[in-house]
Design a protein that fits this description.
The chain is mostly helical and 295 residues long. It contains twelve helices and three strands.
Length: 295
Amino acid sequence: MWTRKELKEKAKKSLSVNYWKTVLVSLILAFILGSTGSSIAGKSLTEKKGTDNTVNTEYQTENVTDNNSMNFPFRTTEDGKLEFSDGNSSYELSNSPESIPGRIEHVSNMIDSGKFGAGMIIVLILVLVTVVLILIGTAIAIDILILNPMEVGCKRFFTRNLNQKANVSEVAYAFDNNYKTVVKTVFFRDLYTALWSLLLIIPGIVKMYEYRMIPYILADHPELTSKEVFAKSKEMMKGQKWHAFVLDLSFIGWEILSLFTLGLLGTFYVTPYRNMTNAALYEKLEYGRLAIEEN
C-alpha cells in the first residue's frame, strides 16, 4: 500500500533534480489538455460588408417592373428577352445567368418576389456552418493525431524523470512507437469517458479514474494492444480510485495559494509537482517501488 507522503516525497526530490525541463514539459501538457475541444474557441467569423453587385434601394418595385420606365436601363420584352435602353435606342442582351445583365435581372426578379433577403440569409448561414464544421473537424483531427500522442510522451517524461534526468524529446516518443495503437487507445479513452459522463457525472468520474493509467501504460509498454492497455489500467486502479481521488484533493490548498500569485506558483511549482506525484503513483502501482535510483 502506498501513502501520499511517500509519493510526494519522491516527486519533490525528482523535481529538484531536473527542475526546468519538468516545468517545460508540464507547460506542454497543460497546453495539450487545455486545447482539447477548444481549438475553435476565440476564433471570430466576420462578414464581408458589401458585394460587387449592390442594389440601390431607392428604386421602388414599380420602377423595376415597369417596362416603360426610363429610370431603370434594363427591361424585359414581351417575348422574355432582356434589352438595354439609353433613352434613344434599345439593344438586345443575353439574359443568361452567367452574364452581368442576366445577374441583374435575376436580382430584380428576387426583389420582385420578396425572396432576396431570405436567399442571402440562407447562403450566409450555409457558409458559416461550413466554416464552423471545417474548424471543428480540424481541431478534432489535431487533438486525435497530434495532441493525444504528445500527452503520452509527456507522461513518459515524468515516469523516466523519477529515477533519471529525462529529456524533453520524450514528448515525441509516441510518434515513433506504436503510434496507431496510441491514437486508437487514447481516442477511445476520451470517447468512453465522455459517453459515461453523459449518463451521470459520478459514472464519468469513476471511469476517468479507471482509465487514469492508460497514458502511462502506453508510454511504458508500447507492445501492448489497445484492449490490453484498457484491461491493465482497470486492474491497476482496482481498489485505488478513492485513494487517487483523495490524492488529487490534497493539492487543492496549493491551487488556492497559486491564485494569489496569478498562477505563477502553479506554473513553476504546483503543476510540475502534481505531475511528478502522479507519475510516482503509476510507478508504485506498476512496480511497487519508491526508491530513488542514483542519477
